[in-house]
Fold Orotidine 5'-phosphate decarboxylase.
Amino acid sequence: MSKQCKLILALDLPDKESALDMLKKLQGSLEWVKIGLQMYLKYGADFVRQVGEMGFKVFLDLKLYDIPNTVASAVKSLEGLPVSMLTIHTSGGAEMMKAALNAAKETNKEMQILGVTVLTSFDEDSMRATGFDRTLSEQVLKLAKLAEESGLSGLVCSPLEIELLRKNLKSEMDLITPGIRPAGSDSNEQKRIMTPSLAAKTGSSYIVVGRPILKAENPAEAAKAIIKELKDAK
Ligand SMILES: O=c1ccn([C@@H]2O[C@H](COP(=O)(O)O)[C@@H](O)[C@H]2O)c(=O)[nH]1
């Protein structure tokens, strides 16, 4: 039986007070919180600690992309922080991914390194505009295989690529999918989207949702509705 797909709330908010207020309302129903560049650059390690101390698992979405030594050193700088998932870009290459993994093993064995494939804001046109001749699916698969060969156990991709990856990867990698939009909600700049229930049915391990929750009239209720949608998805 496949594992239950879980919600990760993307905590992309302008200030700590509203973020903590939101999290208090979700304690007990939500397990995972994603801290991205917006909050990390403003509040740093203390905020990560605070969210961890509230009982949430932290996904730190820094999308590291640099030479191997710099990425490894950045991973080591997270020592002592309650980070359960951390993102790096797979396009940084095998050497960089291996360096990140080794650094994580030395620093925090609980921290899973996730490889971002192609951002969900990309479509075929934006791929070509950045100089890639492959189709989006080909590029995602190429990077996913490279990540698998480099030893990563989790990937960030769009829900539209789940079937392709499940069919073509050798291992049962965790697939973390942003680009999630409940039926009828604004897609914003996300190009490769799917509803929570369909993503769960298709085989997503975790869905990442930000604005459809954060901008809802009642964010806590919107999050709880998505959690229920995931539980009901068969
Ligand atoms: O390919 C990617 C990788 C990461 N993200 C992040 O997920 C959330 C999505 O937020 P929404 O408001 O639900 O669009 C955001 O933090 C992104 O940085 C992504 O969207 N796509």
Summary: Residues 10, 12, 36, 61, 116, 119-120, 156, 178-179, 188, 190, 208-211 surround LLZGTKA7 (CB under 6 Å). The first helix runs from residue 16 to 26. The chain has a mean pLDDT of 97.
